[in-house]
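Suppose a colleague, Dr. K., hands you the sequence of a protein chain of 297 amino acids and asks what its three-dimensional shape might be. Before reaching for any lab equipment, you can write down a predicted structure in C-alpha cell form. Begin with the sequence itself:
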Amino acid sequence: MATINYDSELRRAGANATHGWRRLAFLARRHVLGTIGLGFMLLFVWAATFADLICRYDPLSVDAAHALVHPDARHWMGTDSFGRDVWSRIIHGARISLAVGIGSTTLGAIFGVSIGLISGYLSGWVDLVFQRVTDILQALPLLVLALIMTAALGPTLPNVIIAIAIPLIPTVSRVIRANTLALRELPYIEAAKSIGMSETRIALRHILPNTLAPLIVLATAQLGSTILTEASLSFLGLGIPEPYPSWGRMLSESAAEYVRTAPWLVIFPGLAISLAVFGTNLFGDALRDILDPRQRG
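The predicted structure, expressed as C-alpha cells, is then:
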C-alpha cells in the first residue's frame, strides 16, 4: 500500500511539474517581448556572476603599449586610452550596475513598504506626517535628488546605493499606502478584528501579502531606472569612483575626446546601458500584465 501511495505521489509531482512548464511556455509565447527582456536580464546576471571566467584580461590592468586598439581577435571590443580591455570592463561593469540596481531597489522597497503600510493602516496624524515627508521627497526628480544625496554622502558604492534608494521610497510608499487603504476596509479584515487579532498581525499577515503583486511589478520597473541613474551619476563624476569599471564613467571618459577617433569606446558602454534598461522595462511590462487580473484573458 505504501508503494502505491509513493508511486501516486511521484506521478502527481511529475504532472505538476509538466503543468508548470506548460504554463511557463504559454506565458513565454503570449508575452514575447517580456521573454526577450527576461533573456537580457538573465544574460547580464550570468555575465556578472561569471565575469572572472569570461574575461581574458584584468579590467584594471593598464597597458600603454596597446592603447586605443581597434576591436580584433585579442580585444573583442578594443581598448581604451590606458590600454584596458573594453570587453573586460563592460562585463565587470555589469556587476556594478546590478549591485547598485538591486541594492537600491531592495533598500527603497523595504523602507517604502514600511512607510506605506504604517501610513495606510494607521491613518490619522501618522498618515498626515508620512505623506507630507513623501511630498517633499517627490518634489525633486529622481536624478536631481540622487545627485544631491551623492554629493553629500560621497562617491562610494554603498553611498551611491543609498543615494538612489532614497528617491525611490516615496513612489513605493504611495503604491503600498493606496493598496492598504483599500484592503483594510474589506470584510475579512473586519472579521480578523472581531476575533481579537492584533493590529500588527493583521497588517503583516493579511494586508502585506496582498500588496506584493504591485510591489513586484514596481520594483522590476524601477530596476531599470536605478541602473540608468547610476550610469548618469557616474557620467557626471559622482558615481562609482575610479578605477572600478562603470558604464557611465566609461562614457564620460570617452564621449567628448574619442567619439570620432575611437567610437567603440562610446558604442559598447552605451549599448550595454541600453540593453540593460530595455530588458528590465520589457520584463516589467510583461510582469504587470501577468499579475494584473484585468489583463488575464
